């Protein structure tokens, strides 16, 4: 009997010890999560979930009970569901969407009032993993359960548009003109490498979290400034830039004045899980730099963040990103004049044409082409942060344009620099992106070939020369719609204007406008799409003053092909499908 009691006591003690380990893992994970040390948090949440499953059934473990068994002071820790969700969040913060996705998917089964954004972040992860169809379904699901009109609903609606933009970009016909190469292992070491800046024609300065063996244990992976000798897309001779740096603060994202004597940079630290950043300046001293000094309130507004400085090529202005008051939401791009001593004055917002209610960051100005480049997570794009460009000046900027694929990816693309020409900003460029990494930004060299312009084409013949015979369909060439929707593209207007001209010259005739699709997709979808497209053409003609009584619209879906959709061997026939996707008109009998 004593042996039985002894065995039971040993088993009970082992269970208590293992339960204590499980509790300690969760306690440590919560601690690191609150400090925004997401890498450490993932390690301990994973240990907690693994140890929990080997001790007892998942739903039965209660860390508070385990703690009372050990007779130690109770520290409130997360529930099991919170641990799963926080683990997903931690991986998302590390941009490791592959590991985040399954935990978000598990969280979809939890109480939606406690985890209202699980579906949103799950969809974002699927988009980052290039699972576009699944991502669109996930965003649609989120929209169906999240009725609150807030930033997340607006973001989900924008993401649906993004997914359609992605499909369009991946099918661009000029992708062969781009060359995008990841930087060599020297410039992309362990950790992040980003924020490329040309110091001179052959020296690239960048920021990196690569391990520094000369630092104390807790500060090995701080952000620091490095430089590399670059030639033809390859980099070597990596070395630390000699800028004084506190051992506990991050430092990087620099810009140097045209005379090479003043350097602006960002310093930041994490306080209670929040990043606090400010911009500093440093003076050249031989081959090194002086102790950086924080800029005044003109840039570093009290209680707000300033980061990512960029000195304009003429040396007269400093661009930067800030979440200070007076912006449009999130981080905005701002600019300040620089006096003769390089001191910023009169900070002003770049304006609502450039800035959105989301985040605009990492400005760069390409002097040769007069183009402002920046990254934004607002507007329609590939997803995450995308590169946009805008022409103009501080008084007036044109509407920003997304660079599209492959300059942008479905992950984060932020920090850009270029030695390109006035006609080709994408020549001899470098950018940072986490497109091919599990966690961190990496540096890529980018080149786009600008093809030699062919001689101008001969004049385009009129689309409608004369009235065709009654009940004889005539194809309207050069009529285009947005992908899989009925919206007319502006390129269609000249062809439709020819039809308007014919109708004005012959007011006695009535016509039917019809639209046709290829055989891809369901019959129901093709029928609806063709009907909607035919109505779009009629609406355009009505807007030009044509009487509605003279117009009819008709959608035929894929029922009237004029070419085969497939070859005889069953393979796809792209040319045949292209002919079948058409818009026609015919003159009707009286």
Textual characterization of the structure:
The termini are far apart. The protein contains eleven helices and 26 strands. Helix 1 packs antiparallel against helix 2 and helix 2 (38-55) packs antiparallel against helix 4 (80-93). Strand 11 (306-311) and strand 12 (317-322) form a beta hairpin. The radius of gyration is 30 Å and the shape is globular. It has helices at 2-34, 38-55, 63-70, 80-93, 97-107, 118-128, 132-145, 151-170, 493-505, 523-543, 574-580; strands spanning 178-182, 193-200, 203-208, 224-231, 234-240, 250-256, 262-271, 274-285, 288-289, 293-294, 306-311, 317-322, 332-338, 344-349, 360-366, 371-376, 386-393, 396-397, 401-402, 413-418, 429-433, 442-448, 474-475, 511-516, 551-555, 582-587. Mean pLDDT is 88; it is low at 54-71. By secondary structure, the chain is an alpha+beta fold.
Mean pLDDT: 88
Q: Give the helix/strand class.
A: alpha+beta
The number of distinct helices, counting runs of at least 4 residues, comes to 11
Q: Number of DSSP strands? A: 26
- Helix content percent band: 25-40%
- CA radius of gyration is 30 Å
Q: Could you name the ranges where pLDDT drops below 50 across 5 or more consecutive residues?
A: 54-71
| Distance from first to last alpha carbon | 108 Å
